[in-house]
Amino acid sequence: MDTLLMWGLLSCLVSAIRSQGNLNLITQALAAVGCQMEVIPDPTTVHFHLPNNLSVRVHREYDEFIAELTSRFPHEKEGILKFYGECWKIFNALNSLELKSLEEPIYLFGQFFQKPLECLTLAYFLPQNAGAIARKYIKDPELLSFIDAECFIVSTVNALQTPMINASMVLCDRHFGGINYPVGGVGGIAKSLAKGLIDQGSEILYKANVTKIIIEHGKAVGVRLSDGREFFAKTIISNATRWDTFGKLLKEEKLPKEEENFQKVYVKAPSFLSVHMGVKADVLTPDTDCHHFLLEDVWTKLEQPYGSIFLSIPTVLDPSLAPEGHHILHIFTTSSIEDWEGLTPKDYDTKKQHVANEILARLEKKLFPGLRSSITFMEVGTPKTHRRYLARDSGTYGPMPRRTPKGLLGMPFNTTGINGLYCVGDSCFPGQGVIAVAFSGVMCAHRVAADMGLEKKAPLLDDALLRLLGWLRTLA
Questions:
Q1: What's the whole-model pTM score?
Q2: Could you say which of 176, 267, 365, 449 would form a disulfide bridge with 455 (CB–CB 3.0 to 4.6 Å)?
Q3: How far is CA 262 from the centre of its chain?
C-alpha cells in the first residue's frame, strides 16, 4: 500500500460549493473523483442578533452586506470599506494562486516568480491578526465587537486572536460566488467523496478505530486497529488532531520538538453543546433565514461557555430534509468538557435537559415565540458526545492561541518530526474552517506526492525551506 489516510473527522459548519476561483476546493475535490452535487444558493450567510438590538444580515451580495453594515454605522463607512478591502486583497491573492504545498520549494518559488505581488501580499499579512487590522481603520467599540463576532464564527476566538489570512478566506468567500448548500444536506459531501474514491480504486474501512501508529526504526510504517488488525503503507496521513495523533496514537514515542512548540503556543479550543430538534413549521415566519448567531446581553459574553448561540435551519433551504409541515433546527454553543465530567448518568441527562431548556428559552424570547411548545423531537449532545463519536481530544473544535498570536506563524504544516507521517486538518496550517481544512488537504497531497517522486523535488532546496519554515514558527 502506498498511502494510508486515517479519517478522524469531516466537519462542515458552513460548506461552500461553487465553481469560481482557486479556493473552490470542495468543488475541485469532488471533480477530482468524478462527482458533482446539486446545490441550493443561500441568500443570507448568517443573520446576527447582537447586543443593543444590533441586527445585521450577511447578504450573499457583498454590496448589500456593506450597505446594511454602513447604514448601522454611517460614521465608520470609510473604516468598514478599508477593513473589508484588506480582506479582499488577501482573498484575491489566494484565489489567483495555484494552491499547493507551501513546504514544497519548486512550487513556492515558481508561484513567486509568476505572481510576486500576490505572494508578497500574503507574506505581509501572514504574521497579522484581524483585530489589529480592524483597529487601524475603525474606532467604534460596537463595530469592533461586531468584527469580533464575525471572527468568532471563523475561529471561536475574537478578532485579535484570529489570523487575518484565515478570517479573510471566510469573510470574502461567502460573497465570491456565494454560499451554496448541497441538496440532501452536508453529509452528502462526504458520501460523494467516499463513492468517488472507491470508484477510483481506493478502499475505505468503516468502524475501523485506529489505536496506534506503528513506528519502525524511527519511521511511520502502519497503523493498528482496536480489533488487532494492522495495515502497513509507505505513507501515513493522520487527520486526527495533533493532540490525538501525538498524545494517543504515538503515546509511546518521544514528542517531537515542533509538537512541543505547537502545544506551547496553542491550546485546545472548547467543544460544543448541540441540540438537534424537529419543530412544527408554523413556529417560524416565512422570511426566516437559514443561519443565525445570537448574543443578546453584553459583548463580554461572546467567548464564554453558552454565551453565544449558533443556529442552523437547513430546511429553510431544503424542505426535503424534514417531513412536510416541519423544520429541522441545529443549535450549538461553546461548552467545555470539564463542565460535563464526574456526573452520574442520571445527573448527566438532567443537566443536558436543563442547559438545553435555558438555550431554547433564550431563542424563544428573542427569535421564535412558542418554540418549546412546537418541538416534536429533540436530542442533546455534549462535548463528551463529540469526543466519543468524532474522536477528538476533549471534543475540541480545534487549536486556540494561548495569547495574542502572530498571525499564522505558529501553525504547523503537514510534515512532522517523524519520517513517513503527515498531519492534515484544523490543527495544521492554515487552521480552522471548511476552506482552511480543505486547503490543508490539498497541501498535504502535494507534499506527499513530491516525497513519493510523483512531483518534482529539489532535495537541497527542500531541506533549506523546511528549516526556514521551522524557524519562522519559533517566532510565534
A1: 0.90
A2: 449
A3: 18
Please tell me the predicted confidence (pLDDT) of residue 234.
92
- For 137, half-sphere exposure in the C-beta direction (CA atoms, 13 angstrom radius) is 17
Q: Is the pLDDT of residue 10 over 60?
A: no
Distances (CA, A) of 292 to 266, 367, 468: 28, 10, 42
Backbone torsions φ then ψ of 11, nearest 5 degrees: -120, 125
Whether the pLDDT of residue 26 is over 50: the answer is yes
CB neighbour burial string for 348-360, b if at least 16 within 10 angstroms, e if fewer: eeeebeebbeebb
pLDDT, tens digit, 9 for 90 and up, residues 193-221 = 999 999 999 999 998 999 999 999 999 99
Q: Which is more confident, 14 or 85?
A: 85
3-class SS string, the chain:
CCEEEECCCCCCCCCCCCCCCCCCHHHHHHHHCCCCCCEEECCEEEEEEEHHHEEEEEECCHHHHHHHHHHHCHHHHHHHHHHHHHHHHHHHHHHHCCCCCCCCHHHHHHHHHHCHHHHHHHHHHCCCEHHHHHHHHCCCHHHHHHHHHHHHHHHCCCHHHCEHHHHHHHHHHCCCCCCEEECCCCHHHHHHHHHHHHHCCCCCCCCCCEEEEEEECCEEEEEEECCCCEEECCEEEECCCHHHHHHHHCCCCCCCHHHHHHHHHEEECCEEEEEEEEEEHHHCCCCCCCEEEECCCCHHHCCCCCCCEEEECHHHCCHHHCCCCEEEEEEEEEECHHHHCCCCHHHHHHHHHHHHHHHHHHHHHHCCCCCHHHEEEEEEECHHHHHHHHCCHHHCCCEEECCCCCCCCCCCCCECCCECEEECCCCCCCCCCHHHHHHHHHHHHHHHHHHCCCCCCCHHHHHHHHHHHHHHHHCC
Total Cβ atoms within 10 A of residue 233: 17
* Banded model confidence at residue 475, pLDDT cuts 50, 70, 90: confident
pLDDT at 11: 31
For residue 196, which phi and psi values (nearest 5 degrees)?
-65, -40
